[in-house]
Specification:
Pfam families: Coa1. By secondary structure, the protein is α+β, with helices and mostly antiparallel strands. It has helices spanning 2-41, 44-55, 57-63; strands at 68-69, 74-77, 81-89, 94-104, 107-117, 124-125.
């Protein structure tokens, strides 16, 4: 009786292995994508850029409030460099925050954090000297 159960299980697995692989590949891809997005969204450059955008009066005036981050962050980040775009949206319009930074001696140094609203060609420098959120 035991031999029959083991044989039946092997036969089922032998018949269904292709279906299991077809199911596993999208699950693996989605899982890897979620991990990458989580790493980017938990990074210091991401948090700083989003905070600057949400607190900037010019950005608030153009996009409206509240300013929320979109789900898909494009670009790259590693232990020494970050360059990515964060989609953002207010109650009036949307845009994107561009971040370009390097890490030296354990500290992030920001070369560029700008907002490009969808509704205008005006590029807003969040690192400008007169920016109270810097």
């Amino acid at each position: 009786m035991k031999a029959k159960n083991v044989t039946e299980k092997r036969n089922w697995l032998a018949r269904k292995w292709k279906l299991m692989i077809v199911w596993f590949i999208p699950v693996f891809i989605v899982g890897a994508f979620m991990i990458v997005m989580g790493v980017m969204k938990s990074s210091e450059p991401y948090k700083k850029a989003l905070s600057l955008a949400q607190g900037n009066p010019v950005v608030k005036n153009i996009l409206g409030q509240p300013i929320e981050a979109g789900w898909f962050v494009s670009g790259s980040i590693n232990e020494r460099e970050a360059e990515f775009d964060i989609p953002i949206k207010g109650n009036r319009s949307g845009g994107s925050v561009h971040v370009d930074a390097n890490k030296h001696a354990g500290q992030w140094r920001y070369k560029n954090i700008t907002v490009q609203p969808d509704s205008s060609g005006q590029l807003i420098d969040l690192l400008a000297v007169d920016n109270p959120m810097k």
